[in-house]
Amino acid sequence: MNDWVTTAINIIEADFQRSADTHLFKLEVPKLSGVDIYLKDESTHPTGSLKHRLARSLFLYALCNGKLKEGMTVIEASSGSTAVSEAYFARMIGLPFVAVMPRKTAKTKIAQIERYGGRCHFVESAPQMHDEAVRMAEEVGGYFMDQFMYAERATDWRGNNNIAESIFRQMEREPHPVPETVVMSAGTGGTSATLGRYILYKGYKTRLVVVDPENSVFYESFMSGDRTVTRSCSSCIEGIGRPKVEHSFQPDVIDAMIRVPDPSSVATILWLEQLTGRRAGASTGTNLWGVLQLAEEMQKNGRQGSLVTLMCDSGERYLDTYYNADWVAENIGDVQPSLDRLAAWE
Ligand SMILES: *Cc1c(COP(=O)(O)O)cnc(C)c1O
Questions:
Q1: What is the pLDDT of residue 224?
Q2: Contact 105 CB / ligand 1 (< 6 Å)
Q3: Last residue of a domain, which of 151, 181, 203?
Q4: Which of 17, 21, 68, 119 has the lowest tally of Cβ within 10 angstroms?
Q5: Edge-to-edge strand ranges of the sheet holding 207-212
């Protein structure tokens, strides 16, 4: 058994060894002076999103805790990027992978998971995913990865080239090398937990601000301290915002939270495309809208410094949704007022 585990870990580490780090782009905003904005581009991982990091960490965590054994089925409750990235790693070490997801999940996402050899197992609605994954793991003697539980602890927050360490190293030669603020949204909450812990561990003066979309309980829970709040509808911004406070969301390492309206998130990715030619997913819009609020405040107060956030995935995945004006009008609302505000930066 140990031989198989050792081999599996080596395969994942060898893949990491062959991988390049992701770019930290400087965003040139015409009307902004004295404040530098940077975007860490997580869309360039082999599986297209920051979930590549999470999946690698979750597999190593499970392997090093003796939870994964040869031939075992790996199960996850995810219809999104996590399932895609986990399917990639499961295939790499020769384990069957099953993603439990709602029946109405888009065909393109199912195809992405199947491309990496994963299988999709359907439930009627999103709230059933977790329990079905637990049940299935028991039934087949498989292992439930449980991203919302383990994301915060699977990543080594002290370094080991985690996303925080990578950002601070890439910033070293910038005019303001220690960011005034790092902004991130929360899905599992794992990335913000790693960022916040790393900032505390290293003693940086950087603040961690978490942005939250509509229909998410993280903001409300952060403000009230109540972890039991729930909501019945789910977030329209893919990858972020949850109807309940997930275990991996760690409010104690977050300095402040900002609520971002969904039309502002979508408007910001349209504005980003105009500015840079790059398309990003809507959570990047949430992040960047938050950054621009902070930039405006800094400029108003005559403060200089740098702001860093993440480009979580590419917009090419969302041509039928966030980049389709009809879909946006129907599902998100009027983005024009937000576009008008963003135009002030041009
Ligand atoms: C998962 C995800 C996030 C949030 O990251 P967490 O570490 O899970 O909080 C943001 N954007 C996208 C596209 C994601 O898939």
A1: 98
A2: no
A3: 151
A4: 17
A5: 24-27, 35-41, 305-311, 181-185, 207-212, 256-259
Structure tokens at 225: 């301290």
316 and 170 assigned to the same domain: yes
| Residues in contact with 180: Cβ distance below 8 Å, sequence separation at least 6, in sequence order | 206, 207, 294, 298, 303, 305, 306, 307
On whether both 56 and 180 belong to a single domain, the answer is no
pLDDT of residue 52: 97
Q: Which residues of the chain have pLDDT under 50?
A: none
Would the CB of 189 count as within 6 Å of ligand 1? yes
Amino acid in the structure at residue 249? F
**What is the Å distance from ligand 1's center to 229 Cα?**
20
Residue 160's pLDDT is what? 87
How buried is residue 229: exposed, middle or buried, by Cβ count under 10 Å (0-12/13-18/19+)?
middle
The pLDDT of residue 244 is: 95
Residue 122 buriedness (CB in 10 A; 0-12 / 13-18 / 19+): middle
Q: Does the residue 189 lie in any domain? A: yes
Please tell me the predicted confidence (pLDDT) of residue 1: 56
